[in-house]
Specification:
The chain contains 14 helices and seven strands. With about 350 residues, the protein is an alpha+beta fold.
């Protein structure tokens, strides 16, 4: 271990001990709780995760409880957090752990990576934080810190760049307190060494950061080309009969599969939002719409696309609906609507119906 690396370890751990944020998953050594937090933190900000994490651990405090929980309960707990495959993979993994691993989360990077939804980074975080093993981590924050610290200026999308950073992360990792050191690197990237306007004067590593010493912090890491989000316009219908509202469940294998939604779909070229909804209702429920009344427009940004959702109250021709293409469908009282998990944009319709 070089003196330079030891200096980084010492300065960073001292800074972390003094300034670390008080986060709920840092107040436990329970491997299950740490695993849940790391899955939730994948591509999601800390402030967003905290209430979801606390609600999850209160409702499903053990691996056994998770393994035996109905999927709808899990999706409801996850509602609004996005990337729902993470929640489904948590349940799949819990069932595997209970069935094949005596109910205990494996502690090595290799064995953790055999579970659904756990890659190299998440396995490293769990094994180092929960079990104290010397395993590196590499998320967006750590990549940025290391890129600046060592002036690594390769294209961020190449495997060579990734491998170089993994090697650096491994070289830096101390035998003692590897979990705290990994968290310190992530904490530094999240609170000080930020993508834009980093607070270098508060950085414990500024005297040994190559990019700072060369006054080139903003040149590292190299910028990536940002793909513009695809725009989608959708129409959805609120259909109420006998004080109950119609909802349908998305097919299990579809995007956001297993969640519930209001009927409707994407607007095709040349269609008005009203024409779109009439067509979709006829295709999905095999019944004609006789009148529409627009109640709201919802704009929501998902990771891959931006949605404009036109929402209408619908009156149908008086004949039996025959839903097609969904997993299942129900007429639900407004008081029970919040029990079902919906995609984020549809949650706003639920709020409109239950709180007006």
């Amino acid at each position: 271990m070089s003196k330079h690396n030891q200096d980084i370890q010492r300065k960073l751990l001292a800074w972390y001990d003094k300034t670390k944020r008080d986060l709920p998953w840092r107040n436990t050594k329970d491997p299950y709780s740490i695993w849940v937090s790391e899955i939730m933190l994948q591509q999601t900000q800390v402030k967003t995760v905290i209430p979801y994490y606390e609600r999850w651990i209160k409702t499903l405090p053990t691996i056994d409880k998770l393994a035996n929980a109905p999927e709808q309960k899990i999706l409801k707990l996850w509602e609004g957090l996005g990337y729902y495959s993470r929640a489904k993979n948590l349940k799949k993994s819990a069932k595997i752990i209970c069935k094949e691993m005596n109910g205990k989360l494996p502690n090595t990077v290799k064995n953790l990576q055999n579970l659904p939804g756990i890659g190299r980074y998440t396995a490293g975080a769990i094994s180092s934080i929960a079990f104290g093993l010397k395993a590196p981590v590499l998320d967006g924050n750590v990549k940025r810190v290391l890129s600046r610290l060592f002036c690594i200026n390769k294209n961020g999308t190449t495997s060579a760049f990734e491998n170089c950073l993994w090697e650096k992360a491994e070289d830096l990792l101390p035998v003692r307190r590897p979990g705290d050191f990994n968290q310190a690197l992530m904490e530094l990237g999240a609170t000080v060494c930020m993508p834009t306007s980093p607070i270098c004067q508060q950085c414990p590593l500024r005297t040994i950061c190559k990019a700072f010493l060369k006054n080139k912090v903003n040149e590292f890491p190299p910028s990536k080309k940002i793909k513009s989000s695809k725009k989608i316009e959708v129409s959805a219908g609120i259909i109420i009969k006998n004080k109950k509202v119609y909802i349908q469940q998305r097919s299990k294998n579809a995007l956001m599969g297993g969640l519930w939604e209001f009927p409707g779909g994407k607007r095709e070229k040349g269609e008005s939002p009203e024409e779109c909804l009439k067509r979709e209702i006829k295709e999905e429920l095999r019944v004609n719409v006789i009148s529409l009344n627009k109640v709201m427009t919802i704009k929501h940004t998902y990771t891959q696309f931006r949605v404009t959702l036109n929402v209408f109250n619908c009156e149908l021709q008086k004949k039996q609906i025959r839903p097609d293409g969904c997993e299942q469908w129900k007429w639900v009282s407004l008081s029970n609507l919040k029990k079902y998990p919906f995609p984020a944009a549809n949650v706003k319709i639920v709020k409109y119906l239950t709180e007006k």
